[in-house]
Design goal:
The protein has one domain. The chain contains five helices and no strands.
Length: about 80
């Protein structure tokens, strides 16, 4: 991963929402993907879960895939990085 940017979320807000920081990252990733603001590869990266897990999560929430050429390029790059291509 590249340079990181930190955001501050008050602990009481997380406690009120009954959500962990890792769950919050997943929720942000799903939201941004559903809004078309992140590709599936970048959303999966933010959520810190596998592409398969992220796709399963989207399907469970009935969020349609938004797959385009940029997504294909990112998936191919990810597979190269993982040594699977």
């Amino acid at each position: 991963m590249g340079v990181m940017t930190m955001i501050e979320v008050p602990r009481d807000v997380l406690e009120s929402a009954r959500i962990s920081t890792s769950e919050l990252k997943v929720e942000i990733a799903v939201y941004l993907y559903a809004q078309g603001r992140l590709s599936i590869g970048k959303a999966r990266e933010l959520a810190d879960i596998s592409l398969w897990e992220f796709r399963q999560l989207l399907a469970s929430r009935r969020i349609s895939p938004q797959y385009d050429v940029d997504d294909l390029d990112e998936d191919v790059s990810t597979l190269h990085e993982m040594g699977r291509l």
